[in-house]
Amino acid sequence: MFDATLPRAALAPSSPTPAPAQNRQRIGGESPWVQSLLIGVSLAFLLLFLLLPLLTVFVEAGARGWAAWRAAISEPDAVSAIRLTLLVAAIAVPFNIVVGLAAAWAIAKFEFRGKSLLISLIDLPFSVSPVISGLVYVLLFGAQGYLGPFLKANGIEIIFALPGLVLATVFVTFPFVARELIPHMQALGSSDEEAALTLGASPWRVFFSITLPNVKWSLLYGVLLCNARAMGEFGAVAVVSGKIRGLTNTMPLHVEILYNEYMSAAAFSVASLLAGLALVTLVLKTILEWRFGDAIAAARRH
Prior knowledge:
about 80% helix; mainly alpha
């Protein structure tokens, strides 16, 4: 039995594992050459495998001058691909925000049968190839699919049309919002909401006045990641789009077609625009971290 009269110093040496603070001190006290090695390996990887290929895209895009770059992105098929990419992202991202918030709220605030299964289903797009998800939608909604005859009889087009692109994009991007919110909401608990409900606040008032402000940074992170993936998705979209020029080609598909037709300058020009949109997302993320670093760190501390 534990003896409360024993001093803490007498108990501490018998502990088989060091305290967390001691661990942190030992890790932070590594020799300088180990720190330099780890930093050097990380920087070398980022330079060779991330920054250098990205820089090559912009160099190749600008190799033939500004006029050639502008002509490549203003060509009708390219304009159609840009518009379609932005349209698909504009539909898929808000849908993921609404459904991701609802799923995260249900998982974090309530106990119900099948909760673990729901969490596993949210992670499903991370473990399934995007190509397979596209094939599943073709099997369901394609002309020879399970629902194809019914959809055709009612004049509804999903595969090789905008609805199919949106469905494929929603599938591959769904976890980004929900997965950012679930750990944060679980860490916050339900005490604030319960107190507000006790004082007579309506559920919607509780959501907009307490829940949403508490998770706003996690939500914004999820939206940025979701938007970047939505604009750059290739595999699932390629299967359901049919790659029809000017109709169902998004920017990644248009880049692939141009490159396969040996129009490398035009391909790199459109690719540079797509990479630029991704960099805008990265800049926004960096600005948020710089401007609201403390609040974001607190929000992401699970």
